[in-house]
Amino acid sequence: MKESNYISIAEALKMGATSVNLRGWVYRERKSNKFVFIVLRDETDIIQCVVAKSKNLEIFEKAEKLTIESSIKISGELKEDERAPTGYEISVSDLEVIQIADPFPITEHQSPELLYDNRHLWIRSRRLNAVLKIRHTIVGAIHKFFRNNDYYEFDAPIFQPSQSEGGATLFEVKYFTDKMYLSQTWQLYAEAGIFSLGKIYNMGPTFRAEKSKTSRHLSEFWMAEMEAAWMKLDEVTEVAKDEIRFILQEVLENNKKELEILERDIKLLEGYVEAEYPTIKYAEALDILNNKYQMNVPWGKDLRTNEEAKIADHFKVPVVVTHYPTEIMGFYKPPSEENPKEALCFDMLAPEGYCEIIGGSERSLSVEDMSNRLKADGEDPNNYKWYFELRNYGSVPHSGYGLGVERVVSWICGLDNIKDAIPFPRTMLRKAP
Ligand code: ATP
Ligand code: MG
Description:
There is one protein chain. This protein is an alpha+beta fold. The protein has two domains: 3-99, CATH 2.40.50.140; 116-421, Bira Bifunctional Protein, Domain 2 (BirA Bifunctional Protein, domain 2, 2-Layer Sandwich), CATH 3.30.930.10. It contains 14 helices and 16 strands. It has helices spanning 9-15, 57-64, 112-117, 119-122, 126-148, 187-197, 233-254, 256-261, 266-274, 282-292, 305-315, 367-376, 385-389, 405-413, and strands at residues 18-31, 35-41, 46-52, 71-80, 88-99, 152-153, 159-160, 172-175, 178-182, 199-207, 220-229, 279-281, 319-322, 345-350, 355-362, 398-404. α5 packs across α7 (233-254). The radius of gyration is 26 Å and the shape is elongated. Bound molecules: adenosine-5'-triphosphate and magnesium ion.
């Protein structure tokens, strides 16, 4: 039979009672003296198939040999059956075995480490299939959001000659006879790009040698960044809120089925689309933490995970926190004029314990201030010569932010660990497969 005569399981389920040709993999199988029950899976869904001994002995004997993940083609009659997992069952009239799978190394109730060791096989699971589909929607939504709003896509090099987010998380690589670093952010190059294109965005792999083992840090992750000329802090925080709302909307429009598979609270996500997201200052955040929750966080300390979680929990929606202490912020985040101790920067914190999903700021226009702060960090300002030059050729206020794609995937999917938000995770302890 021609390959074009096969349809997907999702298409078959939509057609209802009819004869169909399907191909896929054995998701589950169960045998009795009279029947073989196969749950067939493809990229779209699962469906129960029944092979009756009384109907055709040859097919029954073939079906008896099937193992989990064997690849097969079947033809048969589809009929409604409320006992079947997706409401339909196929009475099989023909079966072609493509390959009998070896015993599958993943069975029920496996340790997380075994699942990560077998990631190349585990991405077939219904759960990861659902996460990857939602990730696909999120990535698409990010492109759509910026393109709809007249941003140009702009690419920066991955090999970079200097750091931009602190030396501690730099990955050094041999570059011919020299050394270079893997990109920690697209930002510095984006700040050059805006003088040509005005409003730009990008989504690309980002590398940080994160030594702390948290459920929110990968050493290779995807960051979606934007940068815009003329934009100030009050405007850029609104862009971030709009982007998050848009992403949520797109997922709710396209992935209800996947959210159900993940047992995600859809009503809660719908609420996030409608809600206003508050913007508060770091000082107000401390006020809430210290006075409402007796947490005792001194001014000048960065917010830790549990403190970020508390703030987002307090509002129960994504929250923008601005004006963190200048001293603990990156060299390019400018001090505010009214109070130089506070920087013109922001983080967006997601509720339900997911914490920071976006970090951004206005960008400093003072070469002197940036040089001093780099020196204080033990960096050589001479390495930033081209970057500082941007302040000498028609410098204008500008702002930007970076959104962690896997952080957003984790939150929207309700994942326990960020490692499940990307097909093949990389952390300090996990580098294979
Ligand atoms: P954190 O304090 O959580 O480490 P950060 O302040 O280092 O984050 P930024 O430099 O502001 O993060 O980067 C922008 C965004 O990129 C973050 O808001 C987050 O969503 C994402 N991000 C940063 N580091 C990682 C990482 N190691 N793994 C996954 N996502 C990350
Ligand atoms: Mg970090």
